[in-house]
Amino acid sequence: MNKIRKGDEIVVICGKDKGRRGSVNQIIDDKRIIVTGLNQAKKHVKPNPNAGIEGGIVNKDMPIQLSNVMLVNPATGKGDRVGFKMLEDGKKVRFFKSNGEVVDA
Predict the structure, then answer these.
(1) What would the pLDDT profile of 24-45 be if each residue is shown by its tens digit?
(2) Are 71 and 79 in contact (CB under 8 A)?
């Protein structure tokens, strides 16, 4: 079980996009994620008329390491650390360390 999942809202805590927010679009492996609209790079694309691809320069979302992002706590509006705990019914859930609220409802 990962601390950050697809669809979560995160904030970047270091790097060129520090302070920017976005939602997780894809999880590549245990250490890297792709966030929509963040950590973009210019990609030069060759035209391919058979596939209907136009050539030019496009912005591409590049991976960010998990250690450089934090999950946004909706109660405070800031990045927060996440932990795991077991509920009474035996279900394992994520919770925010600052106020103890459960992330997974």
Answers:
(1) 999 998 899 999 999 999 999 9
(2) yes
Comparing CA positions, the residue from 76, 78, 71 lying closest to residue 95 is 71
Which of these CATH numbers, 3.40.50.300, 3.90.226.10, 2.40.10.340, 2.30.30.30, describes 1-42+58-105? 2.30.30.30
Contact yes or no for 101/93 (Cβ under 8 A)? no
| DSSP calls for 20-67 | -EEEEEEE-SSSEEEETTSSEEEEEE--BTTTTBPPEEEEEE--EEGG
Q: Does an H or E element contain 9, and which?
A: strand 9-12
pTM (2 d.p.): 0.81
Q: Which of 96, 66, 60 is nearest to 81 (CA)?
A: 96
| Res. 100: pLDDT tops 90 | no
